[in-house]
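To close the chapter, one final illustration. This time we ask the reader to focus less on the individual chains and more on the assembly as a whole: which components sit near each other, and how the overall shape emerges from the parts.
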Amino acid sequence: MLRVLVCDPIEYSAVRMLSSAGLQVDSRPDISGEELERVVASYNILVVRGRTKVTARVIEHGVPALKIVGRAGVGLDNVDLEAAAKHGVKVLNTPEAPTNSVAELVIGLMIAVARKIAWSDRVMRMGGWPKHEAMGVELHGKTLGVVGYGRIGRRVAEIAYAIGMRILAYDIISIPQEVLARAGAKLTTLEEVLTSSDFITLHVPLTAETRHFIDRERLALMKKTAILVNASRGEVVDEEALYEALAEGRLAGAGLDVFQREPPTGSKLLSLDNVVVTPHIGAQTLEAQELAATMLAEKILAELGLRA
Ligand code: NAD
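The assembled structure is written out below.
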């Protein structure tokens, strides 16, 4: 019988799926690194979230029994991928799970900035009633530029289309016509996206090419009235250049879920009224966490040739 060790807290539905398929599942959601190294040799599959570090030592102690490391979630920074590849240990994760949650947060940030929700809340708590100063703009009828038309970018576009926005999309790969049609989107150049959009949302992965993708020159192409949202990775935006554009009134506002340094303690961006910030909570919903766990269980079972 194949044995699974669940090393981090994970939704019970995933445990149930694995055990119903005939696997023996042990849960040690607060297991220490040393203890994991001691017991890993008797398991075929490790299931982790972000807490447990699956180091080269853990993998070396685990083989030959250890075959799969499953990470419920996106980031694989806590798994030594080189060691896993060297020892033939398959690594699975669930980048699809947070798509809808991140997309909804992006829409939330767009509205929060456009309608000055966070700022109004702050002023009212201090006794103010900034009804006139809180004049905002609608999303309806505006143009949304989506940079990176992958899973999250497409979902944001679909919701925005339902709100009544016109969608411009930019990607380095070609996007099938039927996918664009779901949001009435036009695939175009980066320049058109940056110069013509009222809202711009970033959904590219962080790579060598996308580090500081939104720099001084590209910020300068945006409308003065534009609102920028970043829920991709902090390093995709040059924060210094963004601060200057916002502080000097060359950009109307920004909604940020991710930062070059997290938490962004002391960042000048936090001093600006036209910026709404959230602490990297794109995937922080009950639904996204549940989906990550059940998708991971499905992937593990598929890898083993078993059915859920
Ligand atoms: P995805 O791989 O489905 O889509 C990314 C898209 O970007 C692809 O279509 C790709 O072709 C395109 N792309 C890559 N390089 C590009 C470039 N140089 N120019 C233009 N397009 C480019 O990824 P996804 O699941 O949609 O995730 C998008 C981003 O969201 C990633 O940065 C991911 O790290 C981030 N993310 C954030 C959170 C959060 O909590 N805020 C949660 C999940 C994912």
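Residues 74, 95, 98-99, 102, 148-153, 170-173, 203-207, 209-210, 231-233, 257-258, 280, 282-283 surround nicotinamide-adenine-dinucleotide (CB under 6 Å). Residues 229 and 255 are 5 Å apart (CA to CA). With these observations in hand, you are ready for the problems at the end of the chapter.
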